[in-house]
Design goal:
heterodimer, A: about 375 residues, alpha+beta, CV3147-like fold, CV3147-like, five-stranded mixed sheet, globular, B: about 525 residues, alpha/beta, Rossmann fold, Nucleotidyltransferase, domain 5, six-stranded mixed sheet, about 30% helix
Chain lengths: ~375, ~525
């Protein structure tokens, strides 16, 4: 059991978060540097499981919004998230007592670690996505009735805002508009709740899950073990349970095009040893993998492309012809598979016609 | 006629070219003063070909000198590393993720100042000119000779870097100043890292460029000379003296472009087989395809335009195991002349296999006569499969491509490769670097995020192309020959429709009288 996040955990966390990013969520490199600087200055971050969080503790969730391309150029001041927290506290007249990531995949896994270290707060070992998703309403918090508003938003210049609106989808829409005016990158704190609610509405254990994924891959590599098998075995010990390689092969085609302002892609993978090619549909993250008529895995289940030799997760913008990949699919835990949850981040929420069927489950 | 020179860590090579024909090539050891090695190889190649000095219209030099200086931490200056961007960027000061020894060598003189721009060109903060003046005082007080200036989104608008440089120059006239927008692309930390490294080379670059100049003067060569940069295009000596960092990846680029010329192919895969590894890279329109991932130089993360090269553990000294089913990745390396069976050693290597198969006659053939035919066949199969897979992996489409084999280990490949339309083994491959330098063209590039508010994608794309073309012409390209060779457009993920990142590269032939 991980009770504290230390400097030694950050490499593992970043690697695991890249796997949970399912091809998107941004490169965690810069977030890792920020978390490292904060822990060096303030010490390790206490990690609280959902069971340990006292009922009345006020939890605030957070992360960054915007384009990863901007995040790598306009480096954060490091004060943005603190300012979003201050803004939230001033607006609500409450004091935040624990921090939780709203997204376990990609760069947003590391930003809550930084703010928890800086404010001397514990980090709740859970999140609202269980992976990476592109939008703020795609949260189990929203699914199970926690209002997205008020949303506190801040940038590096000290600009702040509070968004108060009735639905999570509208909060997302307005926050993204402000993010563009803030220079394409903003820091967000919202979905405030108490500990008792957090226990009911969050995907448990996802911070330690990310660290565990990274650690499993690293240790397997160091000991020359089969990294993929080690990862599958590791998932079996978690509440994600089911992970398997749904296909392996060579990328033979990557097409990208614009649809409604989003960059949408299709990657084609020719299986080693022939057979029907597999196709992955991408919209920031990997959404569905199909082979002919068969649906091998579909969102919200995780679809991760891992390099055959190194087991490194491959970001969608770096996909290209000739890469040898294992397609790892991971079933999301039960809290993400209910009809209410699927209405918010299931296939239809992404405009797909597919019915969701959890990996390894009957229809 | 032109001469291409490659100044490597070990050898200095020269190739004299008439148009695209190699008239002669020579090799000589690199000297510590650089210039006497260049003089010697120039003299050699001129006497070999009998070409008069007056017929030489241009000299192109490729060098790994600056890369080696950073890797070896030698002859580097302390740097005033100035950043414009506050309040942004405050969280990760300059040189945050650097190896400690290199950061210490450079003195850790870091300064963060208010300034910088947003992706759409608005200011983050106005430039704090008073603070720049104060830093000028610090630079004088600390006796620093060189400074780097990196501003947020300077690839979108460089005006703050230029203004800060102007102020520093007025205060400290002798200061050498490196500006990040001249060095790199979007990706702040990587660009800043490269700019700081550039600044620490200021003294060495001046000396090396003047030693090049001296070598040409010694031989009374009055033709202009150029130095090749990372992407295989040319820079003037004055520009290299100011931006040596732009030569960091020129070695592999020149080698691949030289191979392309020797083989007469523009769309091909180059396989360079050495003693321990094989490097596989793809040529598109005669230029290496560039890597998209961060590249470490001397332990520092950069985003240089490096050729995308896949290295596999197969070379002339690779060790054979499991009756030929497993090869490498370990190799006897430079000890091949004592460790390989054919040279009297006791290790079965790939070179032994090709001798045993009767494909090559190297060393003592009788010492490999005992190797079973099954092992020989297995090993040959394995080697060809490894090369074939690497070639296939680096391709951008399923179509077969010509494969150009270079390097001393190219004897390992004797058969056709399923991934290749044909296999080419050019002559003069050992001086491919010098040839690549000699044929280099002149380029211009832009890489920027364009806001789409109030304009359209087509308009910004056309503007980007025109600007890249103009840059190539300014750098000395014949306007009639300039072509757009690469366009990359990446809409900003998670900010639909608001902005797009466009990279355009144009190249053309050097204007020569």
């Amino acid at each position: 059991m991980i009770t504290h996040i230390t400097l030694d955990d950050l490499e593992d966390l970043a690697l695991g978060a890249a796997v949970l990013g399912t091809g998107g969520g941004g490169d965690p490199y810069i977030g890792k540097l920020f978390a490292r600087a904060a822990i060096e200055e303030h010490g390790p971050v206490r990690l609280l499981s959902l069971e340990e969080v006292p009922d009345a503790v006020r939890v605030l969730t957070c992360g960054a919004m915007g384009a990863p391309t901007i995040l790598i150029e306009k480096i954060a001041s490091g004060d943005e998230m603190g300012l979003a927290f201050d803004t939230y506290e001033a607006h609500t007249g409450t004091k935040v007592e624990a921090v939780m990531p709203f997204e376990a995949g990609g760069i947003n896994s590391t930003i809550p670690v930084m703010i928890a270290a800086k404010r001397g707060l514990p980090l709740v070992d859970a999140d609202g996505m269980g992976r990476a998703f592109p939008q703020l309403e795609m949260e189990t918090f929203n699914v199970y009735g926690v209002p997205a508003s008020p949303v506190a938003i801040a940038d590096e210049q000290g600009n702040t805002g509070i968004i108060q609106t009735d639905t999570a989808a509208k909060a997302e829409w307005i926050a993204r508009g402000i993010t563009i005016r803030m220079g394409g990158q903003a820091y967000i704190a919202n979905y405030g709740m108490d500990g008792e609610t957090a226990r009911r509405v969050s995907v448990p254990g996802t911070v330690s899950l990310a660290i565990g994924i990274g650690r499993t891959l690293r240790e397997a590599r160091e000991n020359h073990k089969d990294m993929i098998q080690a990862l599958i075995d590791f998932f079996a010990t978690t509440h994600y349970e089911e992970a398997r390689i749904v296909g392996s092969g060579k990328i033979t085609d990557v097409q990208r095009r614009m649809e409604n302002g989003w960059s949408v892609g299709i990657a084609t993978i020719e299986p080693f040893g022939g057979g029907t090619p597999m196709q992955i549909r991408i919209q920031n993250e990997n959404l569905v993998v199909e082979q002919g008529e068969d649906v091998l895995a579909v969102v919200p289940d995780l679809i991760c492309l891992l390099d055959v030799d190194t087991a490194e997760p491959i970001l969608t913008e770096r996909l290209r012809y000739g890469q040898r990949v294992n397609i790892l699919a991971v079933r999301v835990p039960p809290i993400m598979r209910t009809p209410e949850a699927l209405a918010v981040f299931g296939p239809k929420a992404f405009g797909l016609k597919h019915e969701y069927r959890g990996l390894g489950l009957d229809a | 006629m032109r001469i291409g020179i490659d100044v490597g860590g070990t050898n200095t090579d020269a190739a004299l070219m008439d148009g695209m024909t190699v008239l002669g090539a020579c090799k000589t050891p690199t000297t510590s003063d650089v210039s006497s090695g260049i003089s010697k190889v120039l003299r050699d190649v001129l006497s070999l070909t009998g070409v008069a000095v007056s017929e030489i219209k241009a000299v192109m030099i490729g060098t790994t000198h600056f890369t080696n200086a950073v890797v070896e931490r030698k002859r580097l200056l302390e740097v005033a590393a100035i950043r414009l961007g506050l309040p942004a960027t405050k969280g990760l000061p300059p040189m945050t993720d650097w190896p400690n020894d290199l950061a210490t060598t450079l003195g850790r003189h870091t300064f963060m100042v208010r300034g910088g721009h947003e992706f759409d060109g608005r200011e983050i903060s106005p430039l704090d000119e008073k603070e720049i003046l104060r830093i000028a005082g610090e630079i004088k007080a600390r006796g620093l000779k060189t400074a780097s200036i990196t501003s947020v989104f300077s690839p979108v608008t460089p005006i703050m870097e230029q203004r800060a440089a102007e102020i520093l120059h007025n205060e400290v006239p002798d200061l050498s100043i490196s500006l990040s927008h001249e060095v790199g692309r979007v990706g702040f930390l990587e660009r800043e890292n490269a700019t700081i490294m550039n600044a620490c080379l200021a003294d060495l670059s001046t000396k090396v460029v003047s030693s090049f100049r001296q070598a040409l003067k010694d031989l009374s060569i009055e033709a202009p000379f150029f130095i090749s940069q990372n992407d295989g295009t040319l820079m003037t000596p004055d520009y290299v003296a100011r931006y040596p960092v732009l030569t960091f990846a020129s070695g592999p680029t020149n080698s691949m472009r030289g191979a392309a010329l020797l083989a007469g192919e523009k769309e091909a895969m180059v396989v360079d087989i050495g003693g321990t590894t094989s490097d596989v890279g793809m040529l598109m329109q005669g230029f290496p395809r560039e890597s998209a991932v961060a590249v470490d130089i001397g332990g520092v993360r950069t985003n240089f335009r490096m050729p995308d090269v896949l290295a596999i553990g197969l070379g002339g000294g690779s060790i054979i195991r499991d009756d030929g089913l497993r090869i490498g990745p370990d190799s006897v390396g430079y000890e091949i002349t004592s460790k390989a069976l054919v040279f009297g050693g006791d290790t079965l290597t790939t070179t032994d296999i090709v001798v045993a198969a009767g494909l090559e006659d190297i060393g003592d053939r009788s010492r490999v006569a005992h190797i079973p035919a099954s092992t020989i066949n297995n090993a040959l199969d394995t080697m060809h499969r490894m090369v074939d897979e690497a070639v296939d992996r680096m391709k951008t489409s399923a179509d077969p491509l010509p494969v150009i084999l270079v390097g001393g280990g190219s004897i390992l490949v004797s058969r056709d490769l399923p991934s290749a339309s044909r296999v080419i083994r050019p002559e003069n491959a050992s001086v491919a670097n010098a040839i690549g330098a000699a044929i280099a063209q002149v380029g211009g590039e832009i890489d920027r995020i364009f806001s789409l508010e109030g304009t359209s994608r087509d308009v910004v794309l056309a503007g980007a192309k025109a600007e890249a073309t103009e840059r190539a012409t300014k750098a000395g390209a014949d306007p009639a020959s300039v072509k757009i060779v690469d366009i990359e457009e990446v809409p900003l993920a998670y900010l639909p429709g608001s902005a797009t990142r466009i990279r355009v590269k144009a190249v053309g032939d050097l204007v020569m009288d």
